[in-house]
Design goal:
Helix content is 51%, strand content 3%. By secondary structure, it is mainly alpha-helical. It has a two-stranded antiparallel sheet. Strand 1 and strand 2 form a beta hairpin. Helix 5 packs across helix 6. The two termini are 15 Å apart.
C-alpha cells in the first residue's frame, strides 16, 4: 500500500493523527507541519528526544534578543513568573488548537507593549490572529488583576512595568529555545504544562492515538 500523503513510497508507519499508515519520509517531513501529531506519538517522542540532544541557537535577528535583562529576574519574581506560565498553560488547555507560534506571538506583542509602558509611552499593537490576540488580552487582564491586588495590600511594593517587560522577554527567549519552530509544534506549551503536574485545570487531553 502506498503512502496516502506522497502516493509514492510504501506506507510503513502508523500515524495516530491520520489513523492510517504513512511512509517514514512523510512522517519526518510533515510531522508538526501538516500533521497535527498527538504528544504521545512514539515517533514524535523520539524526534523530540533527538532535538533535545541537538539544541539550536537563536539567530542574531531574533526579536527582543538585544534587550538586556537582569540575570536574577526570575528568582526575584518567582511567583509572578509562575502565575504567568500557569495562565498561558491554562489558556492552551482551554484552547487546544493553540500552538507554540501563537503563544510566542502573544508574548512578543505583550513585551513590546510593556517596553513602551516602562518608558512612559502608551502604545499597544495586539497580534492580528485570533488565538494570539485572545492570549494577549488574557495576560493583560492577569497583570491588571495582579497590580490591583498588590495595590490593596498595605506596604506592598508596586509591580513595575519594567519588571513585567523583563519577565516577558525571558519567557519569550525560553519559548524560542523550547519549541522546534514547526508550525504545529507544542513543545513549549507542553513544557509549561509540565511545570504544574498536579493541576486538574491543565489535564492533558485524551490520547488521540488509534490502535491499528
Amino acid at each position: 500500500m502506498s503512502c496516502p500523503i506522497c502516493e509514492k513510497r510504501k506506507a510503513a508507519r502508523f500515524c495516530p493523527a491520520k489513523g492510517e499508515k504513512i511512509c517514514a519520509v512523510c512522517c519526518g517531513t510533515e510531522r508538526e507541519v501538516t500533521i497535527d501529531c498527538p504528544s504521545d506519538c512514539s515517533y514524535l517522542v523520539a524526534a523530540h528526544r533527538y532535538e533535545d540532544e541537538h539544541r539550536r541557537s537563536l539567530p542574531a535577528d531574533t526579536p527582543l534578543l538585544v534587550e538586556k535583562i537582569a540575570q536574577d529576574i526570575v528568582y526575584t519574581h518567582q511567583q509572578l513568573m509562575a502565575a504567568l506560565a500557569f495562565s498561558i498553560a491554562k489558556f492552551c488547555a482551554v484552547q487546544p488548537a493553540t500552538v507554540d507560534a501563537d503563544v510566542l506571538a502573544a508574548i512578543q506583542a505583550l513585551a513590546q507593549t510593556y517596553k513602551t509602558l516602562s518608558s512612559g509611552i502608551i502604545y499597544e499593537k495586539p497580534p492580528a490572529a485570533p488565538l494570539p490576540r485572545e492570549l494577549y488580552a488574557a495576560l493583560i487582564a492577569l497583570f491588571s488583576e495582579l497590580k490591583r491586588q498588590q495595590a490593596e495590600r498595605a506596604g506592598s511594593a508596586s509591580l513595575k512595568d519594567s519588571d513585567l517587560f523583563n519577565l516577558l522577554v525571558f519567557l519569550y527567549r525560553m519559548g524560542l529555545l523550547r519549541t522546534n519552530g514547526r508550525p504545529r509544534s507544542r513543545r513549549f506549551i507542553e513544557f509549561l504544562r509540565s511545570q504544574f503536574p498536579q493541576s486538574p485545570e491543565l489535564k492533558r487531553e485524551e490520547s488521540r492515538i488509534i490502535v491499528p
